[in-house]
Amino acid sequence: MTFQRARSEEQRAVRRRAILETTSAMLDEMPVAEVTLNELSRRVGLAKTAVLRYFESREAILLDLLDDRTTTWLAELEQELAHGVDLSGSALERAEQVADVLSRSLAAQTVLCDLFGAQGGVLEHNVSVEVARRHKRAALGKLAAMASLVRRHLPEVGDNAELFCLNTLIMGGALSAYTSPPPSLLAVYESEPALAIHHVDLRTALRVAIITSLVGMLPRS
Fold first, then answer.
1. pLDDT given at position 11
2. Rounded CA gap, 197 and 122, in Å?
3. Which residues contact 61 (CB under 8 A, 6 or more apart)?
């Protein structure tokens, strides 16, 4: 696609949305680390300098996309928890069901996990104070929304819900880096199966971490 220079706020919004949608499509093909401004500008039909008029950096684009994808995922998670957790069960039973739903749902969001994995170490390091503040405020709102979903199905976690949700997202990002090893490591794991413990199944690893955290937060009877 090609664009004329935006002359109005509406046109600028269209350009920004096109940049975000193009970046999102790229992330369906490649990891965050391989997304470049050069390739993005080529695909979106704008010069790199033009892209930087709408977003101050590659990282700013990816942070906005992280916010967008988190919003979409939380809407899906709300429905998944509603169908996957029996509110009449005991606290332990509900904790196990929340862990099942949350680990399955987050593990399916491979792009989102990749973005969370890059968030602290990469994406937040090349943005202005204004962009960082806007992103963190948005992230805080989404964390509160996620915590509310958890408390709805497991009120026993109480004030620990926000910290639990933050840790879950961080774990999703960290663990996702170990789910798709390069060919050299796959060859190592095949030749020495004992070493394959380092080849992580994201859903399984997340469920262990999530259920361990939740059970630790339940009140002692």
1. 80
2. 27
3. 19, 20, 23, 40, 51, 55
Low-confidence ranges of the chain (pLDDT < 70): 1-8, 221
Domain ranges of the chain: 1-55, 58-217
**Could you tell me the CATH superfamily of domain 58-217?**
Tetracycline Repressor, domain 2 (1.10.357.10)
What per-residue confidence (pLDDT) applies to 4?
52
Write down the pLDDT at residue 7: 61
Q: How far apart are CA 84 and CA 70, in angstroms?
A: 20
Q: Collect all residues with Cβ–Cβ distance below 8 Å to 144 and sequence separation of at least 6.
A: 162
Tokens coding 7: 């002359």
Name the pTM for this structure. 0.90
pLDDT digits (tens, 9 = 90+) for 13-49: 888 999 999 999 999 999 999 999 999 999 999 999 9
> Are 51 and 41 a contacting pair, CB within 8 Å?
yes
Give the integer Cα–Cα distance in Å for 64 and 56.
11
Domain 1-55, what fold?
A: Arc Repressor Mutant, subunit A (1.10.10)
User: Strands (DSSP E) along the chain, which ranges?
Assistant: none
In whole angstroms, what separates CA 191 from the centre of its chain? 33
Q: Which amino acid is at 113?
A: C
